C-alpha cells in the first residue's frame, strides 16, 4: 500500500499530465486561429500567434515538473522512461523545430507533426499513470485484462 504522500504526488503528476494534454490541444486551437480565424484583422491574427508562442513556452513547466514527480512518486520504470521521452520531445519541439523556422523551413515544417506526437505521448503518459494508481488502489500490480491476471484452467 502506498503512503499518502506518494499517492498525493502521483495524483498531482496525473493532473499535470492531463493539463499538458489539454495545453497541447489549446495550442492547436490557437495555431488554427492564427492561420484561419481570429478575424481578418492582422493584429488579431498576430495576437493569436503571440499567444501560441507564449503558451508553448509556458506549458514547458508541466513536463519538467512531471519529470521530477515521476521519480518522487515512485512510478514504474516504464512511466519514468515515457515521461523522460515526453520531456525530450517537448524540448525538441520548442528549441529545434520552432527556432529553425527561418533557417531551415523544411525542418521547421515538422513542428505540427511533432505536436501530434507530443499529444499522443502525453495521452499515453497520462493514461498509463492513471492505470498505475488505479491498480495500486485496487491492490493489483498489473492490468486486469492481461493474460497473467486471468484464472488458470485446472
Instruction: Report helical residue fraction.
Output: over 70%
Low-pLDDT residue spans: 144-150
Q: What does the largest sheet look like?
A: none
In total, how many beta strands? 0
Q: Residue-averaged pLDDT, rounded?
A: 86
What's the number of domains? 1
Task: Encode the helix/strand succession as letters.
Answer: HHHHHH
Indicate the proportion of strand residues: under 5%
The end-to-end distance, rounded to whole angstroms, is: 31 Å
Number of helices: 6
Computed structural class: mainly alpha
Radius of gyration: 19 Å
Shape: elongated
Structural summary, described in words:
This protein has 154 residues and is mainly α. It has one domain. It is elongated and about 55 Å long. It has six helices and no strands. The two termini are 31 Å apart. About 5% of the residues have low confidence.
What topology does this entry show?
Layout: H1 4-35, H2 42-58, H3 61-72, H4 77-97, H5 105-108, H6 111-138
Helix pairs in contact: 1-2, 1-3, 1-6, 3-4, 4-6
Give a quick precis of the structure.
The chain has 154 residues and is mainly alpha-helical. It has helices spanning 4-35, 42-58, 61-72, 77-97, 105-108, 111-138.
Task: List the defining traits of the structure above.
154 residues; mainly alpha; 0% strand
Amino acid at each position: 500500500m502506498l503512503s499518502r504522500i506518494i499517492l498525493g504526488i502521483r495524483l498531482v503528476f496525473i493532473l499535470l499530465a492531463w493539463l499538458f494534454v489539454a495545453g497541447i490541444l489549446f495550442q492547436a486551437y490557437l495555431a488554427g486561429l492564427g492561420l484561419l480565424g481570429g478575424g481578418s484583422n492582422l493584429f488579431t491574427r498576430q495576437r493569436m500567434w503571440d499567444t501560441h508562442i507564449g503558451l508553448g513556452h509556458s506549458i514547458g513547466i508541466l513536463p519538467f515538473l512531471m519529470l521530477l514527480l515521476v521519480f518522487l512518486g515512485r512510478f514504474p520504470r516504464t512511466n519514468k522512461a515515457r515521461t523522460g521521452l515526453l520531456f525530450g520531445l517537448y524540448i525538441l519541439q520548442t528549441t529545434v523545430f520552432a527556432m529553425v523556422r527561418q533557417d531551415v523551413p523544411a525542418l521547421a515544417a515538422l513542428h505540427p507533426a511533432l505536436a501530434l506526437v507530443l499529444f499522443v505521448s502525453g495521452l499515453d503518459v497520462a493514461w498509463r499513470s492513471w492505470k498505475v494508481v488505479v491498480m495500486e488502489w485496487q491492490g493489483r500490480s498489473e492490468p486486469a485484462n492481461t493474460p497473467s491476471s486471468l484464472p488458470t484452467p485446472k
